[in-house]
Amino acid sequence: QLRKCCGHPYLFEGQEDRSLPPLGDHVVDNCGKMILMDKLLKRLKARGSRVLIFSQMTRVLDIMEDFCRMRAYGYCRIDGNTSYDDRESSIEDYNAPNSSKFIFLLSTRAGGLGINLYTADIVILYDSDWNPQADLQAQDRAHRIGQKKEVNVYRFVTANSVEEKIIERAQQKLKLDAMVVQQGRLQEKQKNLTKNDMLDMIRFGADEVFRATDDSMITDEDIDAILAKGEARTEEMNSKLQAHDKGDLLNFKLDGGGCQVIDGVDYSKEKERMEEIKRLADLEFARTLADGMGKRERRTVIKADEPSAFKIKSKMKQLPKAMRLPRMDEWQFYNRRRMTEIHDIEVSAYELAKASGDAVDSTSMYLSPALQAEKEHLIQTAFGDWNKPHFFLFVKLLARYGRSNLAAIAREMVKPYDEVARYADTFFTRGSELTDWDKIRKSIEKGESKLLEIQRLADQTALKIKRYANPYDDLVINYQGKAGWT
After folding, report:
1. How big is the chain by its Cα radius of gyration, in Å?
2. Where are the alpha helices (DSSP H) in 140-269?
3. CA 45/CA 48 separation, integer angstroms
């Protein structure tokens, strides 16, 4: 209702004097915005400009149509009730060379998208949307390919009214979009107006309304002053928003509050606060050091001939590559216990040979032939080249094809059939050694149960088809849950 007050008094039932002619000057004189627009349009038409007028309300557009007829301005109109054919025809008429159409009336939501009106160079936003992106889209109707003139945008705002609050919140939303959403760091859910927000907007400017008089008529000389005042107010609002740029990402709220002052501590000045904390900590440390100064203690130095954990760890890294144990992940099914025993024997022989001064050769054999053969056999019977993705794929294919269809599994894994068959045999024999064996086994059994059910349905279907000499014509299938389907 407050926005209707700013739009035009005739938006309220009973305000228009029906005894006056419908297209009389009272349509203009009873609304401040209409008075300003009437004088502005005369100036724009005299200099050869063409105008787009956007409004949120179709009833405002109805009043605009009466105004255009009064002043004999050629116009087109698009709103939510305009058909596609009329929409395209209006756009073509307006953009046609030497068109007689001076004004294009559009609703912000219906006419703000998908329209190219490059022949216009003036955009008038008669009222503003809560969503600033809608107004930006409306302005872009003139900023299209083919535009050859400088485009000017005029936004009509009733002073000391709810419209000032709408513009203020719209600018804050644009700033929030620039700071947060477009940088991809946070997507904040749209916040609805609270009861207090609405009450503040209703009360805003009430004193100015009650103090207003009827002698404030706008003259032709006042237009430049009004436009200059509007530019000054816009600059003032932008400056106010830019003043809070630093550290405002965490502290930004549409209601003007803040969230960086907690328990009396201003966290927006984090750098200064941390510097002060560091200074006090250094001061306390120096005081403690001066009070408790004791005798100097030297760090323990480990000599080269003394054993240490670092040296023991280094020895493991210095073993010849042929002697190092493989990773032995659980899905590779190594005999870990026996491999570790043989490795310990080999390392002991290697260390003994090295300590006695014998030449250490990485190709030397430090195991007996029997142990060396056993080690090679353990490595060959394991699956050292099966990595984790191979293991997961094998389990997934077991659930899809079943354990009896190893040929399909080998084909999907691009591995030899004999290798896959040997792995499957080891898998089901030693599967209980795996950490998640119960979970893996259940997933495989669930997949195999589905395969059995599919096979059962296929057998039943084949058996039923055999009962008919001409199943394509005689067989009728009733679909469960689909009444009338056969």
Report:
1. 42
2. 162-176, 195-203, 206-211, 222-242, 248-251
3. 5
> Could you count the other beta carbons within 10 Å of the beta carbon of residue 243?
9
Classify burial at 31, counting beta carbons within 10 Å of its beta carbon; exposed 0-12, middle 13-18, buried 19 or more. Answer: buried
Helices 222-242 and 32-46, axial angle in degrees (round to 10): 110
Q: pTM of whole model > 0.85?
A: no
HSE value, Cβ hemisphere, 13 Å, CA-based, for 52: 32
Which pLDDT tens digits describe the chain residue by residue (486 residues)?
777 777 788 888 877 777 788 788 888 888 888 888 888 888 888 888 888 888 888 888 888 888 898 888 999 998 888 888 888 888 888 888 888 899 999 888 777 677 888 888 888 888 877 777 777 777 777 777 777 788 888 888 887 777 777 777 777 776 666 666 555 444 444 455 555 555 454 444 444 443 444 445 555 556 666 667 767 777 776 666 565 554 444 454 544 445 555 556 666 667 777 888 888 877 776 776 655 555 555 555 545 444 444 444 444 456 677 777 888 888 888 888 888 888 888 888 888 877 776 655 655 567 788 888 888 888 888 888 888 889 999 999 998 898 888 999 999 889 999 999 999 999 999 888 888 888 888 988 999 899 999 989 888 888 888 888 888 877 777 766 555 454
Q: What DSSP state is assigned to residue 122? A: E
Pick the closest to residue 54 from 147, 150, 142 (CA basis): 142
CB of 105 within 8 A of CB of 77? Answer: yes
Cα distances (Å, whole numbers) of residue 117 to 64, 77, 339? 19, 13, 81
Token pair for 175: 């700033």
Domains observed in the chain = 2-251 (3.40.50.300), 309-381 (no CATH), 388-474 (1.10.10.60)
Residue 275 corresponds to which amino acid?
Answer: E
Cβ-count burial 359-389 (b if 16+ within 10 Å, e if not) = eeeeeeebbeeebeebbeeeeeebbeebeee
